[in-house]
Amino acid sequence: MYFNKVLHLLAVINLSVQNAYVQGTPTIDYQFEDFGTNDTSARSFATDSNIAQSKLGGPCSYYENRPCTIYGAYCRNEICTCNPYSDITDLSRNECLPKANKTGDPCEVDLQCSSTLSGNGKCGPKKVCICTEGSNPNDDGTECLMGDKFSGEVCSNSMDCFGYPDKSECLNGACQCKSGFVTSSNSSESKLGCLPIIDRTGGECMNKNQCQKGTLGKWSDCAVPEYYRRYYGPNRKECICPEDTYERSLVYGESDICYKIANRIGDSCEESYQCRYNLGKDSDCSPDGECVCLGNSIPSEDGMSCLPSGVLIGNPCQFPEQCVGKPNISSDCSENEICLCKEGFVQNANMSDCVPIRKKVGETCVVPWQCDNIGNNIGCSERSGVKKGTGEKICRCKHGYISGPGKNNCLKKATDIQDSCSIDAQCIPLLKLSRCIRGRCQCVNGAEFRYKAAYGTSTKECVLESV
Ligand SMILES: *[C@@H]1O[C@H](CO)[C@@H](O)[C@H](O)[C@H]1NC(C)=O
Ligand SMILES: *[C@@H]1O[C@H](CO)[C@@H](O)[C@H](O)[C@H]1NC(C)=O
Ligand SMILES: *[C@@H]1O[C@H](CO)[C@@H](O)[C@H](O)[C@H]1NC(C)=O
Ligand SMILES: *[C@@H]1O[C@H](CO)[C@@H](O)[C@H](O)[C@H]1NC(C)=O
Ligand SMILES: *[C@@H]1O[C@H](CO)[C@@H](O)[C@H](O)[C@H]1NC(C)=O
């Protein structure tokens, strides 16, 4: 009883605060302290001030010390009033009578039962609320519903349908839930009647259709939330966004939605956050509704993250496709997770590519170290006669050298007779009539070396004796 009083008191304070807000006048809590008591002291206190305050619908005032003393009533707009949410006003009895919550609740008059219970309750002979004839209580007795045919059952009249008129109706020869209500396809659950669709997490449910058919959507569920199970046991089920989903508010305080969290690039999605939640900030939901990697990033091997691509040689990587060059062909991600050029390749000048190591003079190149394998005295430059910086570069022997017969080395051109050599071509540029004989540049048979120096210049040549 005391507990009930406190609840009433709280309800009244709440209402009077709303009231005060509307009127713009402050109310003071202690003035309610005697409100709700039904004992003689309270009545005598009231009687001392004024007689009208103990009549429902009569005048009252907080300020003139004329409180409303009817049990459950309060002073609203200076009229002694019952709480419209929890009570009905019975003027003939001058009492506020509680509205029934369910069948079996005690009652004095029909209105206590018919103001709730879907309008189909009445006060039965045992002074408890019962359903009127033609209606049936739902499973927890909070409603009296017309008809006895459940959703999906044949009907000829809406009155036949359990839950008519609020929740179901006869459509196309079968009872169906009205919009805003669902039934389970599970036939034993359909005996619960039509259940309201719940659009928010935390709303009590019996069946996951209640959650999934509303804004919460297909990823939501009706379950006992983990925190609830721990503290309150497994009896109250509510609409939840399960662990592999996240929740977002659609209209604040009114409707929520559950989104499935994507685990892999390529999973379907409706919005970015589904992808980014697990796959990181470089992922997004494409217009086609698929999680993709943004910009230059590419899916990791397990598809569970987006990693940078175009990683320069010498920089960290996790798998070959991230590296510049042709992954697995010219470049690779090494065991210690650094982008490297594969065997047979070397990096270019700005580490942005892997170029093939050259084996022969005359092959194209972009950097000199591509030609290093050919030996010393080689560089990478334009062909002779082409202006520097304008043409394709090739591996070229340095000035003063010529390529060997297999084009796989550079040999020094002779600068004097008797210079060491391995092929004639080393000697001939200096001395037309010379050959490489026993490892030295020598004049051919019948020719004779001649050295002339005059006026600061000199010539060396092999000259036929007859000349
Ligand atoms: C209040 O007291 C009156 C008179 O004693 C009684 O008839 C009525 O049932 C009481 N109301 C409540 C709610 O206890
Ligand atoms: C109905 O439920 C409310 C809230 O739980 C409670 O305060 C009130 O006493 C109940 N009414 C009846 C008649 O049991
Ligand atoms: C139907 O629902 C009830 C209660 O939730 C459950 O015990 C039963 O296993 C369900 N039956 C089927 C076929 O899903
Ligand atoms: C590169 O090699 C790895 C390991 O052998 C392989 O899984 C991957 O598919 C290859 N990538 C390409 C582009 O060939
Ligand atoms: C590296 O140099 C090449 C030209 O040699 C150029 O095309 C490329 O954009 C450069 N890359 C970077 C990352 O600087």
UniProtKB/TrEMBL annotation:
Pfam families: EB (PF01683). Keywords: Signal. Residues 1-24 form the signal peptide. It comes from the Eukaryota. Residues 408-448 form the EB domain. This is EB domain-containing protein. It comes from Orchesella dallaii.
